[in-house]
Write the structure tokens for this entry.
Amino acid sequence: MHNCSPKGFNMTHTDVEAGITAGFVNFNGGLPDDVHMFKIRNGKIEMITSWQRPQRVLVCASPINNAPSSRGETMLSRARLMLLLGLCGIAAAQTPATRTDIDPNSLSRFPIVQRSEMKTDADRAAYDYVVGTEPRTTPLRGPRGLSLYSPGSAEALERLNRYLRNDSVIGRRLFELCAIIGAWEIQQQYEWSSHEPAALQFGVSQKAIDTIKFNRPIEGLPEDETVVIQMGRQIFREHRLDSELYARAVKLFGRQGTLELSITMGDYVLAGIMLITADHQLPPNRPALLPARK
């Protein structure tokens, strides 16, 4: 297989008899380039077709050595070619790069909000609270940047998140555990890929992270991680918290801690809803750590 990109092929469609190969490169949410299909005729490479997608979809193709050229003009080969072109169109249409409403600076449907766009003193105060007053070298993206489209919500959301992150009785380790639980339940790649490294940094066990990431049975974890993961699964999947699990949580964390665990999970579900609405893409330097669901 010919590798025409540093990223290499992600998907290939091949017709051995017709001598046609087409491969799609996956940039994990980046913006690829153009589309080419080639075939072998009399031992030479010939371009069949070439086109560009609206947001630069890159499709690479390579010939099949020793493919019989005599069958390239048959109706069967033509039918196969049409099938391949159809598959290419389907696959290209399913890539994030075809989303024409993504702003390249914000990486979402919502352009970056500027302070000059704030209409009232209260809105400007909210902007300064969320963004800060010092010049930024990079734009504020993610749920905090999106929240500025609702200045009346933005400051309250920021205050809540800062409290939960820095001052809650649950502490930073369980805060990060709750963040990835909320991100997993709403399948939010942006938040998961930000908070998985933070969870490790602040002491969440790798086994707990993998239990959440791969939806595994809860086995062999510390009691506090076990109870928090059980809480998340009951709350989000069964829409309840049974008396026995509630009592275990209160024994470990107190009533305030039990409530703040659930508020933190909910905060990251809310963040996920905002990111889904905006179709927010990952920054180019951030790996996608949350595997796709089967």
About this structure: Residues 72 and 78 are 7 Å apart (CA to CA).
